[in-house]
Each structure stands twice: as C-alpha cells, then as structure tokens.
Amino acid sequence: MLHGLISLIKDYIFPVYCLGCQTEGEWVCKNCYNNINAQSVFCFTNLEDNFVNLLISPYLYQENELIGKIIQYFKYHYAEELEQVIFNLINKFLLENKNLFAEIDCVIPVPLHARRLAERGFNQAEVIAKILGAILNKPVLNNLGRVRYTKQQAKLNKLARQENVASAFVVNGKISNNILIVDDVFTTGATTKECAKVLKQAGAKKIIAFTLARG
Q1: Which end of the chain, C or N, has fewer beta carbons within 10 A?
Q2: CATH topology of domain 37-214
Q3: What is the pLDDT of residues 108-144, one digit of tens each?
Q4: What CDD domains does the annotation carry (predicted)?
Q5: Could you tell me whether strands 144-146 and 178-186 are parallel, antiparallel, or unpaired per DSSP bridges?
C-alpha cells in the first residue's frame, strides 16, 4: 500500500512521457510499442577467429529512435519500468525464433567491473540475461568476470574498443559446452568477441551471442 502511494506521488511530481511520442502516462505507449519490429538476425559464420558462432540481435539501435532511447534510459537512468518493456520485446522475438536457442546450456551476461557496477548500481546485461533465462528456462551463470576497469566503449573508435577490452575478462569455474552470452548493444563486436574468446579458450564448444540491439 505504501509503495503504491509513493508511486502515485512520484508520478504526480515527475510525470512519465512516452519515449516515442511524448504521450503522458507510460514510458512506451501501446501504439509506439506495436510499431517496433524486429529486424533480421545477423549470422557470424565466416569470421576468421570463429569465436562467436552466431549473433542474434533483433532490433536496430539508433540513439534518437525508440529502441535507442529505451536502452539509454534503462542503462544510464535505470528507469525500472522499462524492464517490463524489454521483457516484452524479447518475448515477442522469441515466440517466432526460440529454435535459435535450442542447443544452449546456460546464459552468461557480459560482466561489469566492480567499480563500474558500483557507479551504475546494476548490470543491464545481467537483467537481459535473466529475462532470457526465465523465458528459455536456462540457468543464468556468472562464470565470466571482468578484471580490468575499462573506458566506456561507446566513446571509442573500433581499434580503441578492441584494445580497451583486451585481456579484460576471465573465466571462473567450470563452464558448459554451449553458451549464450548476453549484452545490450552490439556495435563493433569487440566486447562480445573478447568474451567469446576467453570462454572458448576455457573449453566452450559453441558460443551464441544475444544483444537486444545492434548499431
């Protein structure tokens, strides 16, 4: 009851507007949500390193478009209500594409360094991973650790991104054969490929990567 009252007061003082059309009342209105369509799946089968066997990235990321705004507000402002929107977007995609995940044994989020986690308060990749784990009925594991504090990838060019995450990750404990690694956005793929690299070096056989969007 108290939580509901606090929520009402918060909504009155700080009203929420749709990130798509600015209609007052919710972060993403039904009309804008219904206009979000998944795009084609990217398939990494011809990469020389072959660390990532398949990339699944259903939505296009553009900063000024709705998907971009959803990710930015969730990631940097932790608009908690957007977690349900993200769940719905993933679930909508999985309804027609669940077969892509049939072989996975577990879900592993791209980790944040402890310092970054303290700064942000949560790991957005872990939230997405838990959504996928719940829908797919697969365990979410934290077998991947981040041992170096790195600059934010969004502020770097392609080469700098690769150098930024080199040797930044380690595997903790025993890992499964077929792993789904999860992050929020795929841009150059530096983080995804570095995570896949250390997992395969530790014995993983197949790596599928999922990001909510690709830029």
Answers
A1: N
A2: Rossmann fold (3.40.50)
A3: 999 988 888 888 888 999 999 999 999 999 999 999 9
A4: PRTases_typeI
A5: unpaired
Separation between Cα atoms, residue 129 and residue 106, nearest integer Å:
10
Q: Which residue has the tokens 């949500």?
A: 33
Q: Which residues of the chain are in CATH 3.40.50 domains?
A: 37-214
Q: Which two tokens stand for residue 93?
A: 């995609």
Alpha helices in 14-123 (DSSP H): 30-34, 66-77, 82-97, 114-120
Is the CA virtual torsion 77, 83, 84, 87 positive or negative?
positive
Q: How far apart are CA 88 and CA 85, in angstroms?
A: 5
Chain centre to alpha carbon of residue 179:
15
Q: What tens digit of pLDDT does each residue of 141-170 get?
A: 999 988 887 777 766 667 777 777 778 889
Q: Which residues pair with 209 in a beta bridge?
A: 55, 181
Structure tokens at 48: 């020389």
CA 87 to chain centre: 11
